[in-house]
Fold these 2 entries.
Entry 1:
Amino acid sequence: MVETLPLRAALVGNPNCGKTSLFNQLTGSRQKVANYAGVTVERKEGRLTTPAGRAVRLLDLPGAYSLEATSPDEAVTRDVCAGRYRGEAAPELLICVLDATNLRLHLRFGLEVCRLGRPTIIVLNMLDAAEKEGLKIDLPRLAAELGTPVVGVVAIRKNGAADLLALLDNPPVMPPVLREADGGDIHATVRRLLTECVTRPAVASEALEDRLDRWVLHPVWGLVILLALMFVMFQAVFSWAQPPMDAIESGMTAFGELIRSLLPAGLIRSLLVDGILAGAGTVVVFLPQILILFLWILVLEESGYLPRAAFLLDRVMASAGLSGRSFIPLLSSFACAVPGIMATRTIQNPRDRLVTILIAPLMTCSARLPVYALLISAFIPKRLVGGVFNQQGLVLFGLYMVGIGSGLAVAWAMKRREVTTEHPLLMELPAYRLPSLRDLVLGLWQRAVIFLSRVGTIIVTLSVLLWALSSFPAPPAGATGAPIDYSLAGRLGHLMLPLFAPIGFTWQICVALIPGLAAREVAVSALATVYAVGGSETDAASQLTPILSSQWSLATALSLLAWYVYAPQCFATLAVIRRETGGWKVVAQTAGYLFGLAYLASFLTWRIALALGWGPS
Amino acid sequence: MIEALIVGLLVVACGLYWLGRVAPSATRGLWRGFGRTLQVIHAPSSLQMAVAGRATAAPQGGCGGCKGCDKNGGCH
């Protein structure tokens, strides 16, 4: 029989047990998954239809170690399960996902869920990994003990959840009937279930994972490995990306030439070449570098290395007054501060959470990469240091380190008078996994789509507006200066100059800072548009780098780099801070201190560079 | 003249796009006004409906080109 109303079901379980993978498998979604705890911090909703045609509305809830919530993300799970979540009816069915390779930990939560008194299905995920480890799990016996259906799935494998789908055709309608034989002691029940339902092989030798962990988690060698990985990552961003970047640049130049040859000189040609192509084309060139950076991040995420890095850096974080729990949110901020700030929901201590939110924008997000790469390409010679290291990669690595160091320094300053109350870091280390090629390709594809849609919307529209501001009004008859000096943008840039001249900025940079408030990479397209309109006959999409290196001093470039390490030029970040903190106060504090730091850092950089003789000649 | 008109329309469209992002309530008012104008001039009903949809659209979540947001505006 086909039901008319969809069944409301919710996926619950410990962090990193594969709920989101199962959610993606069942609903066809592409929510982010990674091999560490705390990726999902709020409820996600999807729909699916069972083989018999039954509609199911499925919720994916944040992972929780217990229904006694200790952090905001766990509170979401607790409230939804209890039917207390605002605007969300209690689910009719709970699908409790347990990691089959780690039942000692996960069964405890499973028992808590069974005791809620709601219809429940227990799903043992990663059955393939359990079998590889030699574990034999008696599913019928476990189902009998828990008094509710138990099915096995492999959430990352195609059709790996077929048994669960079949069960959803006729889901249980009665709550589990647990066999209570241990006087209510949940730990005793877990021990009994493991003894009765799970057969383990005798451990013959140290597993590969343990041997790897002896190196990766070593207090000295572990840090060396971490630093080496990050170092190679930034080298790769510059070394590997060059051929595709050159190809895209040549394509843009050829396209510009084509437009020039097809259209007569006039407003439309100027808009297309000097506005859209110069603006958007300059940013598109950086796509390969962004994808290489994300390839590294995805590989590290999938492999299970990141939580180990968090464990290693717990002591460093503690020296700044934070716990290792802040590591994952800060690490997410290297992709984009928005998910990073949302991931702070896993932090229990409100003060620690606030400090992590405040310093998250200091982690170098991918939007800064085009700005850094443009200035580094223009001012840092491409040569090998010590015969091995790409000098441009070294400077990029240095900029990332300055961001991290500044974040820790700010956290230390904010927390130096406080007694740390956050619990010591207790983190489940996931099994190492070989990253799946399909997931990597999909992840990179999603990143490319996000980047290109930003170019196609934010950057193209701002380039058009900036082109108009840079082109109108036209210079009066008999004017001798450059036409752009008489435009609105030119006048605005000159108006702002007294404020930014002390830090070495030109009026063109001042103009680029305004649209750059929307998103950092817009500054690159804005500079290209301003110089294209100003230079008129040049193709700024391909020539911005030589234009900058000939018109700016090294001191100006370094000052602008220092500005971009700190300046919170991203509307989305400020908006998510407002949402996560529930008011404008923290937004004002964040913007205030970051703009202040940006100005101070640029001023110091400019003055030091002048003293070293790197100023305008 | 036609060239200036095309460029002007493009610039206005980009301006409206940003107005919609920065101040969505202001754009909804504009769309409502445009919708009324379309009614007065008896524009095709499909166009009127499309504009009416714009005027009543709820504010969207998400940042930039990201479509990973749910109805509460959450994202990954």
Note: DSSP finds 27 helices and ten strands in chain A.
Entry 2:
Amino acid sequence: MRTTLRVAGAAARVQALSLLRSPATAILVFILPVNLLLLMSLFALTGYNAPTGLVLEEDTPRAHAFVDSLRDAYHSFDLRPMDRAQADRLLRRGRIVAAVEIPRGFDALVGSGRTALVRFTVDNVNLDMAEDVRRAFPAAVSIFATRLSLPAISVRPRLTDMLAQDTGYIAYLAASSIALAAVIAGAILGGLVTAREWEAGTARLMRLAPCGLGPVLIGRLAAAAGWAALASSVSALVVVFGFRVPAAHPIELAGGIVFTVVAAAALGGLVGVLLRRTLPITPLILGITLPFYLDSGALEPQRFDGKVLFWLSHLSPAYYGVGIMEHACHGLIVTPEPLWSLYAVLALVAASATLLVGKLARR
Amino acid sequence: MDLSMPREAMSSTISTPGRAGSAGNVVELNEVRVVFGDLVALDGLTLSVAPGEIVGLLGPNGAGKTTTMDVCCGLRVPASGTARVLDLDAVKSPRQLRANIGVVPQDSGLYPELSPYEHLHFAAALYDLRQPKARIEGTLRLMGLWDRRGQRVSTLSKGMRRRLALARALLHDPALLFLDEPTLGVDVQGRRALWEHILRLREEGRSVLLTTNYLDEASALCDRVAIMDRGRTLICSSPAELRRGAGVALVLACASATAQVAASLRARADVLHVAESSHCVRVRPVNEAATAQIVAAADAIAKVTSVRVEEPNLEDVFLALTGKALRE
């Protein structure tokens, strides 16, 4: 055992040197997860607040109350004060999606119970965004009327939130993207470092050493996992500081990255031992991981895609990683399984895959 | 640098069964048969290597040379027959066996981004060598690579890489070395340097089993050469004995019409093989008694200006044994 650990340690050191001296691989592993994070955030573009020009013709309490209602309309509007000419210009250039104009006399008209005409212009070139804005505007009016107890409003919905805090779409997706980064970086590097032993003709030579090839591959996988954990941490930093998603449980976040990366590296290593060629590793890992990731509750905790897909997603470490990350970042439990079991499964996957790598290396 | 000093420094960690005081052969293959599906890679191969002996395996591609080495290293389990190496059963005790053999594979098996020193440092860990610095330095100096110890392998010449592969194989002081095509792709100067290193191994009392496609290499290095074809040993003898057994070759210099001379001689029953170049025809008679008739026959077609008697080379031997050229 001592010899095995020493050989694995030496192999890890050699692998770390190789990674440091092969910038292409190292950069790929660092850039790919961040790129995927950015790619995933495209899903949520329409979830962002719509940039809306706010033309305020009077500075009165009711005008400001209406602006507040717009702001509170389910976080739909990103209001930017400007004059009418500027609003028209920016709308034409596509720099804002809509413009709302609160006219002079608004306060007096509302106060006297008469109809106030609020001009609302929508750039409907982007249908998704336009529909979001169209839906949000009546909601804002309702909020305004309710707050001011205007007689025309008779419905008063009573909303009850299940959770103490809202979790934005972007924030939710960004947290799950850390798991994706960990799986992608770990599996690709794991696959590359093991397959390379055969491609470089060194596997045969290692098998001729008294300790055999197994400890060498385990050491290399350990170095790969370390490197991938670093790469995933970069993605996590981008999420925390770039996307402004605070980590509710930072230690859990770090632990989740380590567990996910180790499991993914071991599985990637297994793929590498089976394929024994480096070329197909990256496309294969990406091709397998992305669908599993999307089915792993990466976009929202509740899935409407059927039980089969839900159970299939259990085959990927992404499922367990997403579960851990959502709890680490937002305190959400998004899997039916308890949190500790997610760690346990990842550890089990890592141990089983590593044992299989060692076994297959003897062939 | 003398390799014996650092060897003693690390000998406590490695036992060398079958090395000192063993009267038996270091390699003893007996009727070994290896089958890959329908392909018979080794067909009852019998081979031995004595202590301190260099034995060459010579044969065309697919003859079974590398498979023979794999069996000796315990990487391949024979379907039948026995393989004993360094007094150990290669099938039952591969781990103990591997601690005492050194292998230079055909493709060197080096990491291009690592330096020679890092390669040997890693190899020292693989073979559990304690405090290996002196040993690494000695081996690198011996192979003329000490000055290049920090350079990445990708920047070394092919000859240097082969020397590094040999250095790695020697690092743990093995009693027996397996060299698979040790000079493949190496330039003439590099080959000579490698030959010197290999010959020195014998002086140190090590045994070597090497494969080669180069006849001059087998002649220069080997005490015995085993000529293999289709998984069998056709003959195993010293290069000199093999040459003697193959008879002489005549080189006839003709003033003209060498093609006609060659064609005519090929038709004769007392001629084994004919090769022609621009002004010469090289002929291998079935025996020396036929020499005079062959020269006369050639002279009758075109004026033979000179006749030279050549020692046969191993290609001739191979041809005589298998009826085909070595590289077919």
Note: Chain B touches chain A at residues 73, 75, 95-96, 98-99, 101, 103, 105, 107-111, 113-114, 118, 121-123, 125-128, 152 (CB under 8 Å).
